[in-house]
Write a structure and sequence with these properties.
By secondary structure, the chain is of the alpha/beta class. The protein has 11 helices and 13 strands. It has 2 domains: about 220 residues, 3-Layer(aba) Sandwich (Rossmann fold), CATH 3.40.50.300; about 60 residues, 2-Layer Sandwich (Alpha-Beta Plaits). A 6-stranded mixed sheet has the order 5-6-7-3-8-9, sandwiched between helices. A 4-stranded antiparallel sheet has the order 11-12-10-13, covered by helices on one side. Strands 2-1-4 form a 3-stranded antiparallel sheet, with helices on one face. Helix 9 crosses helix 11. The structure holds adenosine-5'-triphosphate and magnesium ion (MG). The site of adenosine-5'-triphosphate has 13 residues, from strand 2 and helix 2.
Length: about 350
């Protein structure tokens, strides 16, 4: 269940949620979010050692993480890693074989009814009746909740104004995706779950949706999303959990994860006089120097590497004709931790 059809919320576990009354794009800092959430120490979502098998396939095992109120939390991992299975357990669509889950302090299965009005869900492979019009779908969803957001406004905010009277089957993949996000926001939920938020969208639509998600956070909501796009995780998520082969490998902010697992930085520069390369040998942070004619690659750990290299260049008045730095990304972290790239 759960994957095939996005049903109106009263007929099945939560499928939709509600509309932001306004969209803002500047993220709030952690201190402001803490003020908005006095019970910040209580997680919005707590997942404790859950396991789920499908026959002989162990989809997820011993998965644990907390999502803090007001943050954008990402589950990142390659196809088949267990992201959707984890999300569907948290949303109450699937029952884990083992372990415990709390969403806003409630049990997603036992308290499904109470949670329905407080969470919003966008499914990875949702479908709607093909002839339903955009505005009809939004009104139908809105009618299921006592406290629904302004559907027309939501349609505008998601860039669907021109498609308001179009049928679902005539929408492009990206437009369907936006409609599902609109439906997930229709009840103004406290926690929104977005599975594969921007898969299949063009870069412009992707950026628009990132802004929308930041707007949801700005309004004090908690967002849990899955993605296999590292750039998306890095730019959008406050914290991420890396999942591979059904297990959580590490959890942290993107910056923390990069510092922890890939602390090395690289500076590549072109110096006018190759004979001066020896001057880099005394720079404390540099652990390796390689050169190819005038092109020099300097490697070392820590944020100060670049500053020290620049100081060395200035001190010796070395002329540089090219200079660039290479800072590791979450993609590198993933490769380091799992031994394979996310898109293998
Ligand atoms: N209904 C199911 N029946 C049997 N096996 C399943 C089912 N759903 C998922 N699986 C298996 O469980 C594992 C995890 O799948 P899941 O859909 O959770 O991964 P995912 O990380 O969401 O992948 P994707 O990035 O492709 O969406 C995979 O090995 C998958 O084949
Ligand atoms: Mg999935």
């Amino acid at each position: 269940m759960g994957r095939a059809e996005a049903r109106p919320p009263n007929t099945e576990p939560p499928t939709a949620a509600s509309a932001p009354s306004r969209i803002e794009s500047s993220p709030k800092d952690a201190a402001t979010r803490a003020r908005m959430h006095p019970t910040m120490h209580e997680p919005a979502v707590r997942v404790d050692a859950i396991r789920k098998t499908y026959g002989a396939t162990v989809a997820i095992d011993n998965v644990s993480f907390d999502v803090r109120p007001g943050e954008i939390f990402g589950l990142i991992g390659p196809n088949g890693a267990g992201k959707t299975t984890t999300m569907e357990c948290v949303e109450g669509f699937r029952s884990p074989d083992r372990g415990a889950i709390r969403v806003l302090g409630l049990d997603p299965i036992r308290d499904a009814h109470a949670l329905q009005e407080r969470i919003g869900v966008q499914l990875q492979e949702a479908q709607l009746q093909k002839r339903i019009k955009v505005r009809e779908a939004v009104s139908l969803w809105a009618s299921m909740y006592p406290r629904a957001a302004d559907g027309d406004r939501l349609i505008d905010q998601l860039g669907l104004s021109e498609k308001r009277n179009e049928r679902f089957m005539t929408l492009s993949g990206g437009q369907k995706q936006r409609l599902f996000i609109a439906l997930a926001l229709i009840n103004d939920p406290e926690v929104v779950f977005l599975d594969e938020l921007t898969t299949g969208l063009d870069p412009q639509a992707r950026h628009a949706i990132w802004d929308l998600v930041r707007g949801i956070r700005q309004r004090g909501k908690t967002v849990v999303l899955t993605t296999h796009l590292m750039e998306e995780a890095e730019r959008l998520c406050d914290r991420v959990a890396i999942i591979d082969h059904g297990r959580i490998i590490d959890v942290g902010t993107p910056v923390e994860l990069v510092r922890r697992h890939c602390p090395e930085h690289t500076v590549v520069l072109a110096i006018e006089d190759p004979a001066t390369i020896a001057r880099f040998e005394v720079v404390p942070r540099i652990s390796s120097i390689t050169s190819d004619g005038s092109r020099v690659t300097l490697r070392g750990a820590g944020d100060d590497l670049v500053t020290e290299v620049i100081q060395c260049l200035a001190e010796h008045r070395m002329r540089v004709t090219d200079f660039r730095t290479e800072v590791p990304t979450l993609e590198d972290v993933f490769l380091r931790l799992t031994g394979h790239a996310i898109r293998d």
